[in-house]
Amino acid sequence: MEEKLEFEDELEFESEDQIDQAGLDAAAHDVKQASIAAFISAGMSFLVILFAMFSGRGGAFDQFADPVNFVEVALVLACGIGLRFYSRTAAVTLVIYFILAKLYTMMTLGRPTGLLFTVIWLYFYWKGIRGSFAYHRIRREADPAYRSTPLLFIALVIPTVAIMLGLVVLGVMVESGTMVSPEVVAGSELSQSDSQMLVDEGIVAPDETVLYFYSTGVTSISDDGNLLTDQRVISYERVDGVLGVYAAKYEDVEDVIIVEEGNYIDDTIVEIDTVDGELFFLYLSPIEGGDQAFIKELQSRIPAKPKQSKQPELPRL
Known about the structure:
alpha+beta; PH-domain like; 5-stranded antiparallel β-sheet; 3-stranded antiparallel β-sheet; 8 helices; 16% strand; elongated; transmembrane helix
């Protein structure tokens, strides 16, 4: 029994002796620097978002004034915490998110910004990938039974990070024009290709200016859309390959009726009645109050109808 214990002690000593301690320390140092960079980034973003929300500065700060940005702060913070546990998933997610976020910012502003800070932060985040992978490789080489990722982490953290990263990817795709915006957008925000498609399909005239636009499409606006121009209110849809366009000049609009208020699932439905007795419907997203902005602009452009004076009744003889 004593010989067996001595043998186990000897194996344990030999196993520890086989660990590349210098490499392990270097990997841990890289991971620690990456996690600190993530915490600093999350803290700075948190302060910028608060400033943008409550200062009312506008301009370049507009993109940070949305409370949804706190989701991105939470993602970076979660990755920083994950790095403290040498998570390779957190390290890779952080780099992917950082690159996508910078691309999104550049597309929003129309120019590259903060290139020096981008390079510095990307350097530290890359050290997180290098360090986390090296850390687990060294541990596994020393102990083949070493388990690098707890089951709880796999079951809870990885799906959560994947969902949050997916939302960021979705935002970048919408901003780049790969996917259609889920909101009512200003006409100036339409891509050149979408604007040209509206003209080519005969939906708008070349001399019309689109003021507001919304489509329920996912990757293309060719199948349906609702828009205001400087001349008309228009709705179009493609059924069995045939495009139907319904439009009315503002002076021909008799009434605007909100048939159904929208929510985060369903669009707002608006009925347009014309002086000719015809009608058609608009479907507008209520996200960020886009439907209300659309309707308000529409109503402001409809000329006031003259009130018909009531003829006095003649006295009966």
